[in-house]
Design a protein that fits this description.
This protein is α/β, with parallel strands linked by helices and 374 residues long. It folds into two domains: 9-46 and 144-213 and 305-363, FAD/NAD(P)-binding domain; 85-139 and 216-301, D-Amino Acid Oxidase, subunit A, domain 2 (D-Amino Acid Oxidase, Chain A, domain 2). Helix content is 24%, strand content 25%. The strands form four sheets. The protein has an eight-stranded mixed sheet with strand order 5-6-4-14-15-16-13-17. It has a six-stranded mixed sheet with strand order 8-2-1-12-19-18, sandwiched between helices. A hairpin with a 2-residue loop joins strand 9 (170-174) and strand 10 (177-182). It is globular and about 65 Å long. It comes from Deinococcus malanensis. Residues 8-343 form the FAD dependent oxidoreductase domain. Keywords: Oxidoreductase. This is FAD-dependent oxidoreductase.
């Protein structure tokens, strides 16, 4: 089978990024085919904690999240829940964080600055070492699987075709088109969107390209039912890296292990003790909670050297567009990313400045992390 005749764009990956891109490309009149090695949202998307926030410190990330959250709020299928994000900020980081809040306000994000004492209205925690807290009530979480399927359905209605259980096994540029080999035959298109999540580096390697994305395993621990005075918003303690929020009658929580990179599978239960130890230092009431091992899960982040996404055309590779490396921000930015990818594909100026996320930055001296990582 040759599924290539007449395609304008081949999207690799049907997670939330690939599905949203497929819709926005198809609605602009392009003939789109999506190749997915499994099922929609079957990779990182479906294993996400599905948080969405606009509390970033760079304009590009703020706008990508702000516009995405606005789109999710208008989609009944998204399951958007504006429960808020509460950030607990150490003293040393507080001045820079306040500057970030000023930028958020200029861009229309309603973030509040709170003292640690005032922030207790959202959750009980020990304020030791904190310079302040911020809370944004339009942040929250979504149903990542339901949202992805909504994009799949919209893309199909706009004419996109999804080839599921169809891994890409080879990629080469032949004249004006990309040729993608699959077990079902060859697919050809002049434009290719790499939306392969944690597999994006390997997809690039199939074409002889270096895309600096690697998988990083993340654990999500789930408590048993616990009685709280109020549901918890998503809380992120910047000092320890611990995050947690309510999930019905339970709490889900996690903490990134920077050493846990590569294709490692399964729950790493040895990471539970250091996660709980850090969490209970800030939230001592967690000691009364039980753990539900069966309800806990793991998934992959797709991380880059600076923990920022890679978005837009790849220099030196005609027709290759990246939408990958989101480092935990994919669900919260997918809607806006899809719009800018469609604009890039059509040769239009993106409505959000992509320069901080373009591939070319890796040719420059790195500045270190520019935004908090959850």
């Amino acid at each position: 089978m040759t599924a290539g005749a007449g395609w304008d764009v081949a999207v690799i990956g049907a997670g939330i990024i690939g599905a949203a891109c497929a819709w926005r490309l198809a609605e602009r009149g392009l003939k789109v085919v999506v190749l997915e090695q499994g099922s929609p949202a079957g990779g990182s998307t479906g294993k996400s904690a599905a948080g969405v926030r606009a509390q970033f410190t760079s304009e590009t990330n703020i706008l990508l999240s702000k516009h995405s959250i606005e789109e999710y709020a208008a989609m009944p299928e998204s399951g958007y829940h504006p429960g808020g994000y509460l950030l607990l900020v150490p003293e040393a980081q507080w001045p820079a964080h306040q500057a970030g809040v000023e930028l958020q306000h200029r861009l229309g994000v309603p973030t509040e600055q709170l003292t640690p004492e005032d922030a207790q209205v959202h959750a009980e925690f020990l304020p030791d070492g904190l310079g302040g807290c911020t809370f944004c009530g339009t942040d929250g979480h979504v149903d990542a699987h339901g949202l992805t399927m909504a994009y799949v359905n919209r893309a199909r209605e706009a004419g996109a075709r999804f080839l599921l259980d169809t891994p890409v096994t080879g990629i080469r540029r032949d004249g004006e088109v990309w040729q993608l080999s699959t077990p079902a035959g060859r697919v050809e298109a002049p434009l290719l969107v790499n939306a392969s999540g944690a597999w994006s580096g390997e997809v690039g390697a199939l074409a002889g390209l270096e895309i600096p994305v690697q998988p990083a395993r993340r654990m999500v621990f789930t408590t048993g039912p616990i009685t709280l005075a109020r549901p918890l918003p998503m809380i992120f303690d910047l000092a320890s890296g611990v995050w947690l929020r309510s999930e019905g009658e339970r709490i889900i929580l996690g903490r990134a292990d920077p050493a846990d990179v590569g294709w490692r599978e399964g729950m790493e239960w040895a990471w539970l003790e250091p996660t709980l130890e850090a969490a209970m230092t800030r939230f001592p009431w967690l000691e009364a909670a039980s753990l539900d091992r069966r309800a806990s899960w793991w998934g992959y982040y797709e991380v880059t050297p600076d923990h920022q996404a890679i978005v837009g055309r790849l220099p030196g590779a005609d027709g290759w567009l990246n939408a990958c490396g989101f480092s935990g921000h994919g669900v919260m930015q997918a809607a806006a990313i899809a719009r800018v990818i469609a604009q890039e594909a059509l040769g239009e100026a993106p409505f959000i400045d992509l320069s901080p996320l373009r591939y070319e930055r890796f040719k420059q001296v790195p500045n270190g992390l520019t935004d908090i990582q959850v």
